[in-house]
Structures are given as C-alpha cells and as structure tokens.
From TrEMBL:
InterPro entries assigned to the protein according to its UniProt record, in alphabetical order: PRR14 (IPR026320), Tantalus-like (IPR028149)
Region (Disordered): 1-20
Protein name: Tantalus-like domain-containing protein
UniProt domain Tantalus-like: residue ranges: 35-92
Taxonomic lineage of the native organism: Eukaryota, Metazoa, Chordata, Craniata, Vertebrata
Organism annotation: Micrurus spixii
One Pfam match: Tantalus
Keyword terms of this UniProt record: Phosphoprotein
Length: 130
C-alpha cells in the first residue's frame, strides 16, 4: 500500500503534458505572386503573345507617364571612323536607376519643439517668488 506522500509524487508524472496551441512555422510562407511589393494586387494582363495594331492603338488602359516623371533622352555623340561619321555605336548601353534599399529602416527626423515664450513652469514661479 502506498502512502499519501507517494501518491502525490505519482500524480504529476501521470498527468498528460499540455501542448502549446501556437503553431511554429519552420518555413517562411512564399510571397503571393499576385501582390506588388506594396501589397496591392497586380494588374491582370492578357495572356496573348501577339497583338494587332488596332488593339495596341485602342488600348483604353494605357496612361502615358506624367511629364515630371519622364526620363530624359541620352544622346550619343557622333564619332568619326575611317573618315565617315558613325552616330550609332555597336555597344549596348543600359540605364540604371538605383533606389534606396527598402529593407533598411529610414532615419526619422527629430522634430523641433517650439516653446511658448513667457510661460513659466511651477518650479520657475516658485524660484522667482522666493
């Protein structure tokens, strides 16, 4: 026969262990291909490879970029080779636009505080009054 102290020792061992309800994912979920980096849905494109001229010219969705956002044209200097002017080189040039890395947090500007002139705190009033 077991005593009360021995029964008390056996009970915690027999009790089923609680399993956490929180599921920990081992793999990162794949980003949704239908969302842009800002989280907006991507525009649906037609899955056609060839478009007729009429379809291209009557595209209702097309919006030309505003004048403020348009890129300037990079003109190439004409070169002289064997006595004749060559205006197009054989090299292909690429235009690169670099943006700040969005993963790095931006630095916040410290806001300047404007103090009301002529106002006293309780401590300043007490010091003046004596």
């Amino acid at each position: 026969p077991k005593t009360g102290a021995q029964l008390a020792k056996d009970k915690p061992e027999n009790r089923p262990k609680k399993v956490s309800q929180i599921r920990i994912r081992k793999t990162i979920p794949k980003p949704d291909p239908n969302l842009t980096p800002m989280g907006l849905p991507r525009p649906k494109r037609l899955k056609k490879t060839e478009f007729s001229l009429e379809e291209i010219y009557t595209n209702q969705n097309y919006k030309s970029p505003p004048a403020t956002r348009s890129l300037e044209t990079i003109f190439e200097e004409p070169k002289e080779k064997n006595g004749s002017l060559i205006s197009i080189s054989q090299q292909k040039r690429k235009r690169i636009l670099e943006f700040q890395d969005f993963t790095i947090p931006r630095k916040r500007r410290a806001r300047s505080r404007v103090r009301a002139t002529g106002g006293y705190t309780r401590a300043q009033k007490a010091a003046i009054e004596g």
